[in-house]
């Protein structure tokens, strides 16, 4: 009879490559033949690809260009954090991607652009990296602050789909000795202030909101939990593809939402939030079965729009809807960045592709007295839509996040 240990090394390694990574480590202890077979690179190359979508291109740049070392020292202990995450920072949330890039696992934070330029790209900040040291061990480093990489711990979270970043030296995150200088520098960055421009700390409402945000963000600076963020994939036969969009939220500036289809509705959940409506809340809900077709005269004022009762509006079947209809921003409605989007697209926003009834979530500070208020969802372009808040007399513009998240 032939034993499995009598198989040629190439065949034995092929069979072993089908085993899970942790099992391979135990199999290596069985006998010398198994030990030698588990050292063959093709075994770990297969596991890297199957378990973490780690391919030959990803291997370049590592301190040790060995699938076995990268798998056992980095991917197996830390590969579960690769993906898109939302930091649990009070009401503010956030957007963080963790990818294999340039010989390391890198964590990158994406921040909304400076208000009110919704067409500007997201701001990028490097958070941490995991790479191999010269000795062949995983080196986990925090990249915050001006003082270079320093030690960081990655800990399990309280539930599945969570993890925690704990910086061992959060004092290295500071750029200035004085907290007041640190605050001023941070606010300048948030509002895009020019050098020498005075900040009205005591009077400007927007500045005061940022001041509160700075205080809360600092509470999570050294120890923060992250929750998995599941982004929807492309769909067929939908008015607009799902994905991430950045939009205007009045004094809170630009925020990011995740647009997805659920229960025959189009819903937008906040990825970044504010003290009024926090992250993760259902910010907008679009009723796809309540399409609208309005003339220019219908849209001259909010009163004329509100006078049109739903049962009197022509609501044809989706397949019978026109490909284009007039759009007019009603008199007295505050425009948040519409001219900026129009210039970016090099097209006047005088016509839209679709218009639907919907609702938007509003609340007082601290998410008190939350309620859903009537809105119109106005689709201009595959990457641009607007939300007309009827009761708030304002219109918010949303632009697709085009960065490779």
Model description:
- By secondary structure, this protein is α+β, with helices and mostly antiparallel strands.
- It folds into four domains: 64 residues, Monooxygenase (Up-down Bundle), CATH 1.20.1280.50; 91 residues; 42 residues, no CATH class; 169 residues, no CATH class.
- Helices cover 22% and strands 32% of the residues.
- The chain is built from ten helices and 19 strands.
- An eight-stranded antiparallel barrel has the order 1-2-3-4-5-6-7-8.
- Helix 4 runs parallel beside helix 6.
- The longest helix is centred in the middle third of the chain and has 15 residues.
- It is globular.
- It starts with 8 loop residues before the first helix and ends in a 5-residue tail after the last strand.
């Amino acid at each position: 009879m032939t034993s499995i240990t009598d198989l040629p090394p190439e065949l034995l390694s092929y069979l072993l490559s089908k085993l899970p990574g942790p099992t391979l480590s135990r199999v290596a202890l069985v006998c010398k033949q198994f030990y030698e077979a588990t050292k063959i690179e093709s075994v770990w190359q297969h596991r890297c690809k199957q378990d973490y979508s780690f391919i030959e291109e990803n291997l370049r740049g590592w301190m040790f260009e060995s699938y076995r070392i990268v798998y056992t020292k980095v991917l197996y202990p830390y590969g579960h954090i690769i993906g898109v995450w939302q930091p649990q920072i009070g009401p503010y949330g956030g957007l963080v991607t963790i990818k294999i890039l340039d010989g390391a696992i890198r964590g990158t934070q994406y921040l909304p652009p400076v208000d009110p330029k919704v067409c500007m790209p997201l701001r990028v900040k490097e958070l941490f990296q995991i790479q191999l040291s010269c000795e062949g061990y995983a080196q986990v480093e925090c990249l915050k602050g001006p003082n270079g990489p320093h030690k960081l711990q990655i800990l399990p979270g309280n539930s599945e789909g969570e993890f925690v970043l704990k910086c061992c030296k959060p004092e290295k995150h500071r750029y200035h000795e004085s907290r007041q200088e640190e605050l001023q520098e941070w606010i300048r960055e948030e509002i895009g202030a020019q050098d020498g421009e005075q900040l009205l700390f005591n009077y400007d409402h927007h500045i005061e909101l940022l001041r509160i945000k700075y205080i809360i963000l600092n509470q999570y600076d050294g120890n923060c939990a992250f929750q998995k963020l599941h982004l929807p994939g492309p769909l067929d036969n939908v008015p607009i593809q799902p994905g991430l969009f950045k939009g205007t939220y009045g004094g809170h500036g630009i925020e990011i939402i995740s647009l997805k289809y659920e229960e025959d509705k189009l819903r937008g959940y906040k990825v970044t939030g504010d003290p009024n409506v926090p992250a993760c809340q259902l910010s907008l809900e679009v009723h796809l079965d309540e399409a609208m077709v309005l003339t220019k005269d219908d849209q001259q004022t909010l009163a004329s729009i509100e006078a049109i009762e739903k049962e009197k509006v022509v609501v044809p079947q989706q397949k019978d809807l026109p490909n284009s209809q007039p759009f007019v921003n009603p008199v007295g409605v505050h425009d948040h960045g519409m001219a900026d989007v129009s210039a970016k697209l090099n097209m006047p926003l005088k016509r839209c592709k679709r218009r639907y009834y919907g609702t938007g979530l509003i609340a007082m500070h601290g998410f008190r007295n939350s309620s859903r208020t009537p809105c119109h969802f106005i689709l201009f372009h595959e990457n641009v839509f607007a939300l007309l808040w009827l009761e708030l007399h304002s219109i918010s513009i949303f632009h697709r996040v085009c960065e490779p998240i």
